[in-house]
Design brief:
Elements lengths: L29 H7 L6 H5 L3 H14 L7 H18 L1
Length: about 90
């Protein structure tokens, strides 16, 4: 009985180990900043409050109502709506 030859399935372009994979860019490095800055900022994007702004306003709403737990979603939604209104009024 003759032995069959098996064919290599990996190609030079396909990494066979994890160490051969490219490393992703670190947050804040030049490749990451270039990817984030692609494309123009539209007016709609500029009028949206940032997540950090919403988070801070929601936290202030939470403190203002006595730090009562269980209404975090309400705080978030109301803070987001308030910030959007403030940006459009300005």
């Amino acid at each position: 009985m003759a032995k069959r030859r098996t064919r290599e399935t990996s190609t030079p372009e396909t990494p066979s180990t994890a160490s051969e994979l490219p490393t992703p860019p670190e947050p804040g490095d030049s490749a990451d900043r270039a990817q984030q800055s692609e494309g123009p900022v539209t007016e709609a994007m500029a009028s949206e409050p940032s997540e950090e702004d919403i988070r801070l306003r929601a936290y202030h709403r939470y403190l203002h109502r006595g730090a009562e737990h269980g209404r975090h979603v309400d705080d978030w939604v109301e803070a987001e709506q308030e910030l959007k209104r403030n940006k459009t009024d300005a």
